[in-house]
C-alpha cells in the first residue's frame, strides 16, 4: 500500500495497521460522498457475486447427487434453516430468508476480507451497526405488532419474587437496549482486531531476524481468523434468531 | 492501545495526507457511503435469495427427499413381491407334492384292485377246472364199476360154461348182481 511505502521510505518500523480499513474512492481522489463508488462498493459487489456464485450458479444443475458447490449451498441452507426452526420454532420459519440474507452477507464478507489486499466491509462499525439496528428495530416492531402491549411482559419476569420484579425489569430493559450495541461491536471488533493483528505481525516481518517468526504468527493468526470469520457470522445469526424468538414468544 | 494507534495514525497523517486520522471506522464522513451501499447489497442479496436461490435449494432438497422416500417404498414393494413369489413357489411345490402323493396312492389302489381281480379270476378258473376234473373222475369211476360188473358176468358165464353146466344168462346175471351187492 502507498502508506506503507511511505513508512518504508522513512526507514525504521512504522505500523499502519488501521490503514487497511480506510474507505477511499475507487476512481479519482475526491471526497467520499454517499453515492461515491468506493472500495466498500467494490467488496460488497464481490460479496453479492459470491452469493450468486455459491447459491445460484452452484445449484444451477439442481442435481439429486450434488456437486461440491451445491453441497455447500445446501449445507448453508440446512444449517440456517435448522437454526431458525430450532430457536424460534415453526412460526419463525417465515423470517428465514431475512436471516439467511444476513448470514450469507456476513460470512462471505468475512471470508472475502481474508483475501490479502481485500477490504473487510464487516470490520466497519457503520456496517455492523446498521445490521444490528435493522435486527433490533425489526424485532422490536415485530414484537409489538404480534403481541401488542403484552410484548412488554418480556421485561416483567413473572417467575421472580414480586419485590424483585421492578429491579429485574430495569435490568432487562437496559440489557434489551444494549443488545444492538453488543451485537454490532462484537462483529466489527472481532474482524478489525484480527486484521489489525495480522498487519502488525506483517510490519514486524520487515526485520530479517524476526521475519520467520512473524510469518509463522501471520499463518497462525490467519487460521484463527478463518475460524473467527465463520464463528462471528454464526454468532450474529443465532443472536438474531434468539432476539426474534423473544419477539415471537415474549413470555418467559 | 487506542492512544498508541491514534499517535501512530497521527504521525502517519503528518507524513502522508492520505492516511485517515485515528480509526477509519470512526470517520463519520464515510458512514453515509457505507450505509448506502450496505443497504443496496442487502436488498440485492435478499432478492437473489428469496426469488431464486432459496426456492431452488428447497425444491432440490424436497426432490431428493421425495426420491429417497420413493426408492424406499419401491424397495419395500419389491421385497413384498419377492416374499409373495416365494410363498407362491412354496405353495406350488406343496401342491405338486400332494398331487404326486395322490397319484401314487391312486395308482397303488388301482394296481391292488387289478391284482385282486386277476387273483379272483384265477381262483374261479382253478375251482371250475377242479370241479370238472372231479366230475370226470367220478364218471371214470362209475364207468369202471359198470365195466367190472360186465366183466364179472361174462367171466361167470364162461366159468359156468366151462363147468359144463347149462344155465341161462338171466340166472347168472342175477347171481352176480347178488354177489356184488352182498
UniProtKB/TrEMBL annotation, chain A:
Keywords: ATP synthesis, Cell membrane, CF(0), Hydrogen ion transport, Ion transport, Membrane, Transmembrane, Transmembrane helix, Transport. It comes from Roseivivax halotolerans. The chain crosses the membrane at residues 34-57, 69-84, 96-119, 131-156, 162-179, 200-220, 226-244. The gene is atpB. The keyword Transmembrane helix applies. GO terms for molecular function: proton-transporting ATP synthase activity, rotational mechanism. It is found in: Cell membrane; Membrane. Key component of the proton channel; it plays a direct role in the translocation of protons across the membrane. HAMAP family: ATP_synth_a_bact (MF_01393). This is ATP synthase subunit a. Belongs to the ATPase A chain family.
UniProtKB/TrEMBL annotation, chain B:
GO terms for cellular component: endomembrane system; plasma membrane; proton-transporting ATP synthase complex. Keywords: ATP synthesis, Cell membrane, CF(0), Coiled coil, Hydrogen ion transport, Ion transport, Membrane, Transmembrane, Transmembrane helix, Transport. Its main location: membrane. It is found in: Cell membrane; Endomembrane system. It is a single-pass membrane protein. InterPro entries: ATP_synth_b/b'su_bac/chlpt, ATP_synthase_B_chain. Residues 1-15 have a biased composition (Low complexity). Residues 1-20 are annotated as: Disordered. GO terms for molecular function: proton-transporting ATP synthase activity, rotational mechanism; proton-transporting ATPase activity, rotational mechanism. Residues 68-106 form a coiled coil. The keyword Coiled coil applies. The chain crosses the membrane at residues 35-54. PANTHER family: ATP SYNTHASE SUBUNIT B (PTHR33445:SF1), ATP SYNTHASE SUBUNIT B', CHLOROPLASTIC (PTHR33445). F(1)F(0) ATP synthase produces ATP from ADP in the presence of a proton or sodium gradient. F-type ATPases consist of two structural domains, F(1) containing the extramembraneous catalytic core and F(0) containing the membrane proton channel, linked together by a central stalk and a peripheral stalk. During catalysis, ATP synthesis in the catalytic domain of F(1) is coupled via a rotary mechanism of the central stalk subunits to proton translocation. Belongs to the ATPase B chain family. F-type ATPases have 2 components, F(1) - the catalytic core - and F(0) - the membrane proton channel. F(1) has five subunits: alpha(3), beta(3), gamma(1), delta(1), epsilon(1). F(0) has three main subunits: a(1), b(2) and c(10-14). The alpha and beta chains form an alternating ring which encloses part of the gamma chain. F(1) is attached to F(0) by a central stalk formed by the gamma and epsilon chains, while a peripheral stalk is formed by the delta and b chains. This is ATP synthase subunit b. It comes from Roseivivax halotolerans.
